[in-house]
């Protein structure tokens, strides 16, 4: 009987795809579809004024919604935290990296939001990976809005559970997806404010659904916390939901808090389990103590100085009035995220470039960050902008978008 011959090493080498060839082909495809992404070096920053490639620009693509990243009290807290506790935390949280600033921030956030316990992560991305990897397993289901942030999707993938995605804000579709999967545990996860659209999730209906279906409801409020709701408590406070109705809530600090990291809030049982078992919590260095101190300062300002929220709200209203008058394609968003959906990549890039030539830095967001055919300018409005700057942006947009050259680009 003939036996199969093992392939000679040379044959194997010849059939294998080379990674370099693959990435070069992918790069060519991105060039052809105007999807290349490049980093820019921000050489200087003062409020929303930035210097990029030697050019002074007004930044309309920052998530620093309250302008706290450059607030002197927040900066002083960071410096003092580093002076007292060192720059790095020197170990993972469960070894010796969890210090008094981290613990105080966890307690203060939990008290503020009315949750039993907080757990501090180095980023929102890590927190989302941790929640799903540690709580869900094969046989479980995680039902998510199609427009959820990428890290919620990645978290579900890391848990090897079944991931189901319902059309944007479609509670009935979510209900069907949960109802069709009765084995194993279930999680219903959504952004509170959608990062590329600025609209709010139907949180009250989703909370009711989660309760009816015995699913754990999980909200990521990266873009709502600090900016909307009573006391700046975000989208769940706008929906008047409490810790019983939203048993798990994550508050990333990279946006309105003006820093870095994320606070996960939940019950003793859920948070305790995540703290002991989540690989993205266990196997990473704890956040810098100075950053924890800075985020405590941001929390004090968010709670104690509501004028920043009021100012953003009034600038958003001003932008929307001007943009509506000019016939710009506004979306249904009343948060600092004001997308102008232009459709194709080339036109979006062309408009962004023209804006830049006139002194405005605006993000041109293209697939895969947004669905195909929905490329957009993601304009963000912050408390560090002025009325005059909002009016200047609207005027520039009006002229550029009505110019036939950019209309056809
Ligand atoms: C909804 C949402 N969740 C999580 C993240 C990630 O948070 P971080 O930047 O802290 O990793 C982002 C964006 O960065 C986001 O928009």
UniProtKB/TrEMBL annotation:
UniProt-listed GO biological process terms: biotin biosynthetic process
Reactions mediated catalytically: 6-carboxyhexanoyl-[ACP] + L-alanine + H(+) = (8S)-8-amino-7-oxononanoate + holo-[ACP] + CO2
The keyword S-adenosyl-L-methionine appears for this protein: no
GO molecular function (one): pyridoxal phosphate binding
Cofactors: pyridoxal 5'-phosphate
Keyword DNA-binding attached: no
PANTHER family associated with the record: 8-AMINO-7-OXONONANOATE SYNTHASE, CLASS II AMINOTRANSFERASE/8-AMINO-7-OXONONANOATE SYNTHASE
Name of the protein this chain belongs to: 8-amino-7-oxononanoate synthase
């Amino acid at each position: 009987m003939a036996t199969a011959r093992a392939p000679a090493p040379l044959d194997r080498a010849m059939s294998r795809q080379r990674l370099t060839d693959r990435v070069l082909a992918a790069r060519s495809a991105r060039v052809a579809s105007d999807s290349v992404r490049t980093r820019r070096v921000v050489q200087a920053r003062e409020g929303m004024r930035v210097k990029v490639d030697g050019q002074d620009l007004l930044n309309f693509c920052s998530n620093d919604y309250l302008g706290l990243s450059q607030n002197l009290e927040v900066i002083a807290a960071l410096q003092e935290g580093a002076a007292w506790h060192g720059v790095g935390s020197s170990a993972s949280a469960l070894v010796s990296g969890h210090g008094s600033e981290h613990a105080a921030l966890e307690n203060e956030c939990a008290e503020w939001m009315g949750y039993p316990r907080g757990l501090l992560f180095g980023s929102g991305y890590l927190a989302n990976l941790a929640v799903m990897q540690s709580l869900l397993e094969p046989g479980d289901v995680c039902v998510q809005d199609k427009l959820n942030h990428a890290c919620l999707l990645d978290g579900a993938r890391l848990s090897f559970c079944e991931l189901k995605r319902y059309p944007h804000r479609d509670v009935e579709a979510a209900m069907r997806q949960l109802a069709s999967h009765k084995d194993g545990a279930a999680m219903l996860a959504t952004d509170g404010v959608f990062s590329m659209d600025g609209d709010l999730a139907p949180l009250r209906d989703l909370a009711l659904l989660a309760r009816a279906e015995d699913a754990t409801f999980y909200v990521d409020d990266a873009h709502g916390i600090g900016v909307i709701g009573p006391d700046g408590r975000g989208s769940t406070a706008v929906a008047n939901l409490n810790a019983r109705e939203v048993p798990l809530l994550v508050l990333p600090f990279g946006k309105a808090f003006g820093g870095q990291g994320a606070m996960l809030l939940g019950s003793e049982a859920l948070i305790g389990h995540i703290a002991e078992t989540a690989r993205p919590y266990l196997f990473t260095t704890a956040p810098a103590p100075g950053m924890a101190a800075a985020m405590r300062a941001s929390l004090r300002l968010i709670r104690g100085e509501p004028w920043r929220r009021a100012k953003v709200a009034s600038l958003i209203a001003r932008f929307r009035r001007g943009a509506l008058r000019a016939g710009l394609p506004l979306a249904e968003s009343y948060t600092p995220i004001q997308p102008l959906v232009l459709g194709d990549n080339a036109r979006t890039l062309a408009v962004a470039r023209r804006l830049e030539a006139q002194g405005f830095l605006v993000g041109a967001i293209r697939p895969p960050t947004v669905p195909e055919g929905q490329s957009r300018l993601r304009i963000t409005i912050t408390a560090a902008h002025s009325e005059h700057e909002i009016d200047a942006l609207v005027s520039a947009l009006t002229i550029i978008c009505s110019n036939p050259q950019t209309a056809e680009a």
